[in-house]
Amino acid sequence: MDTQVSLDWWPSPAKLNLFLHITGRNDKGYHLLQSLFQMLDVGDSLAFIPNDSGDIRLATAISGVNTEDNLIYRAARLLQSHVNTPQGCDIYIEKQLPMGGGIGGGSSNAATTLVALNYYWQCGLSTETLAQLGLELGADVPIFVHGKTAFAEGVGEQIHPVSLDESWYLVVFPGVNISTAEVFSHPDLPRNTTPIDWQHYTFDATQNDCQKIVCKSQPEVAKLLQWLLHYAPSRMTGTGACVFATFSDPDQAKAVQQALPENWHGFVAKGVNTSPLQLKLQEMS
Ligand SMILES: C[C@](O)(CO)[C@H](O)COP(=O)(O)OP(=O)(O)OC[C@H]1O[C@@H](n2ccc(N)nc2=O)[C@H](O)[C@@H]1O
Ligand SMILES: Nc1ncnc2c1ncn2[C@@H]1O[C@H](COP(=O)(O)OP(=O)(O)OP(=O)(O)O)[C@@H](O)[C@H]1O
């Protein structure tokens, strides 16, 4: 089979945390957050060929990630056992997003897998049920299943969709990977930011509570942030390492991208209120 022409690609978009406040911890030690998740129109792509054998096979390997640990494989297995289907799948991956960048690559891949296989295997699960299932794989999976730009609270499972004005983002990876678990276990991480009323959100009155300790332990992130701040309002996303700069005009974002020093790689993306994954699902239904 010529897979190049016959594969039907499903988008697996990136997100930005426009702000990230840590307001406490739950009884499992997980951090309670408030965050504004901005969906982007850029990301990875996945394609699925269902089979009757029940095997889940990753046709494309991700360097440094074992199949059993890959969130795509784990999402497929989780759904398969939840609905007890005899069906399996071959899964193709076009990876674009840097791993450990704070832009949600792995979580988004898991969400796309749940949504697409729910469609192909005709499981009939609701978006809410898929989101609850996704939470078993990672805190950010539910938000990607819903596929809406949204305020999120709790560990990311309480979601309030919002409609933001059109913005463009230059997202830059400083070339260092950051472990989410390490940031959350740092003794100096602020953990008691006063909760805000998300309906009165402004960029200037918010922050990323992880940014200070990451900038201290990874000077390259601090350097990148200082560089971008000369051009536009900028902030780290998630637990790093990517930093984004915000523009109302895509040409300005592209001009700054052109000016990036050689060791930093960035992409320009549009902020969207509905994710490309949700648009694909609507197109298929
Ligand atoms: C900070 C965010 O990037 C915001 O988008 C996410 O909430 C992180 O989500 P994620 O990468 O899906 O993280 P997970 O894979 O669920 O968790 C990785 C590790 O980070 C810690 N963790 C994660 C999320 C959270 N709300 N509190 C935590 O303490 C836990 O030790 C966990 O074992
Ligand atoms: N399909 C996948 N794509 C990317 N990473 C994966 C995948 N499956 C498992 N992982 C593991 O998850 C780790 C975190 O990757 P990911 O790209 O989700 O980080 P992130 O962008 O920091 O996410 P977040 O913003 O949710 O914290 C990787 O280092 C990798 O070991």
Automatic annotation (TrEMBL):
Pathway: Isoprenoid biosynthesis; isopentenyl diphosphate biosynthesis via DXP pathway; isopentenyl diphosphate from 1-deoxy-D-xylulose 5-phosphate: step 3/6. Residues 210-265 form the GHMP kinase C-terminal domain. One of its GO terms (biological process) is terpenoid biosynthetic process. It catalyses: 4-CDP-2-C-methyl-D-erythritol + ATP = 4-CDP-2-C-methyl-D-erythritol 2-phosphate + ADP + H(+). It is an enzyme of class 2 (transferase). Residues 70-148 form the GHMP kinase N-terminal domain. ATP binds at residues 98-108. It comes from the Bacteria. The keyword Protease does not apply. Keywords: ATP-binding, Isoprene biosynthesis, Kinase, Nucleotide-binding, Transferase. The keyword ATP-binding applies. The active site is at 15, 140. GO terms for molecular function: 4-(cytidine 5'-diphospho)-2-C-methyl-D-erythritol kinase activity; ATP binding. Its EC number is 2.7.1.148. Catalyzes the phosphorylation of the position 2 hydroxy group of 4-diphosphocytidyl-2C-methyl-D-erythritol. Belongs to the GHMP kinase family. IspE subfamily. This is 4-diphosphocytidyl-2-C-methyl-D-erythritol kinase. It comes from Alteromonas alba. The gene is ispE.
